[in-house]
């Protein structure tokens, strides 16, 4: 096992330098540093929710576009029908509106693919991997409990080390003060022998206390060294499970990004071919000269003009 990996500082492949993160740049096996892994799992859950929210909004925009296109088409055809336009131009105009509405079917299928192949897939993934109780996500809580259990005895040992360190350093301070006081008394010609004896006894007592606390401190450090491999193994085992959990989520995102791309591809869409065909037919039926001739025959020079002629008064 690579023990060094377990105590690498966090954030070497993540943007914690930019984000506010209290766990950044600290050893993973330090007390409560596992919360960085828990926070990552929680962030994964939130990202799944955000994914669903964002692409549901995209689907809503598509549906709204389709609805607006229908309304626009109906209103436009009505206005053209009621306008002064006539002939093949009027017919081609109306058919062009109907043809352009065909794109709505394309967007309808985009919505369907978005919903079925992207949004629903993420909803299912989230439900399967982030099952919730009333208060928390079950899997994340499981990781948290396992980290706490792995660290429980280690924290107790660290508390013992910290206490023995303080005891030893306090004893050292008292010893140094006593040794300084002894030197002062020894150099004082007026000091009584009893004072000197008492000070020597005091120094001797502090030395014994210092040695005892030093021994205990060193023993706790040794206990830590002996315990460390198992502790690191336990922490790394849980961490690796969170890696697997997170790797699965990232792979799901990658898969759905590809599905999103496929959902939006329209180059081979049959509705676009239909729309093109309708446009071509309406354009082919358009005949400017025919419209000019029709108008001319009804309103122009081909009409029968009522020329004035001499008229007698009729009784």
Automatic annotation (TrEMBL):
Keywords: Coiled coil. The keyword Transmembrane helix does not apply. It comes from Adineta steineri. SUPFAM superfamilies: BAR/IMD domain-like (SSF103657). GO terms for molecular function: phospholipid binding. Residues 207-241 form a coiled coil. Residues 22-291 form the F-BAR domain. One of its GO terms (cellular component) is endosome. Gene3D superfamilies: Arfaptin homology (AH) domain/BAR domain. Pfam families: FCH. This is F-BAR domain-containing protein. GO terms for biological process: cytoskeleton organization; plasma membrane tubulation; regulation of endocytosis.
């Amino acid at each position: 096992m690579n023990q060094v990996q377990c105590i690498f500082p966090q954030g070497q492949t993540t943007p914690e330098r930019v984000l506010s993160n209290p766990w950044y740049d600290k050893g993973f096996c330090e007390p409560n540093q596992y919360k960085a892994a828990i926070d990552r799992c929680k962030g994964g859950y939130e990202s799944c929710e955000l994914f669903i929210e964002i692409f549901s909004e995209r689907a809503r925009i598509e549906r709204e576009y389709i609805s607006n296109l229908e309304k626009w088409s109906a209103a436009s055809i009505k206005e053209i029908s009621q306008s002064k336009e006539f002939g093949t131009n009027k017919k081609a105009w109306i058919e062009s509106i109907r043809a352009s509405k065909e794109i709505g079917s394309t967007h309808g299928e985009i919505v369907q693919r978005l919903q079925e192949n992207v949004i629903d897939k993420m909803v299912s993934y989230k439900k399967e991997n982030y099952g919730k109780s009333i208060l928390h996500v079950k899997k994340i809580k499981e990781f948290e409990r396992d980290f706490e259990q792995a660290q429980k005895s280690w924290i107790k040992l660290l508390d013992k080390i910290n206490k023995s360190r303080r005891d030893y350093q306090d004893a050292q301070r008292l010893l140094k003060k006593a040794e300084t006081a002894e030197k002062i008394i020894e150099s004082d010609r007026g000091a009584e022998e009893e004072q000197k004896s008492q000070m020597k006894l005091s120094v001797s007592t502090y030395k014994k206390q210092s040695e005892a606390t030093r021994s205990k401190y060193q023993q706790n450090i040794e206990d830590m060294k002996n315990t460390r491999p198992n502790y690191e193994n336990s922490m790394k085992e849980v961490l690796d499970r969170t890696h697997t959990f997170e790797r699965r989520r990232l792979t799901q995102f990658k898969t759905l990004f590809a599905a999103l791309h496929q959902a939006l591809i329209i180059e081979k869409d049959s509705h676009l071919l239909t729309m093109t065909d309708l446009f071509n037919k309406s354009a082919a039926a358009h005949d400017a000269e025919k419209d000019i001739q029709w108008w001319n025959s009804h309103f122009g020079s081909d009409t029968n003009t009522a020329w004035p002629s001499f008229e007698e008064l009729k009784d």
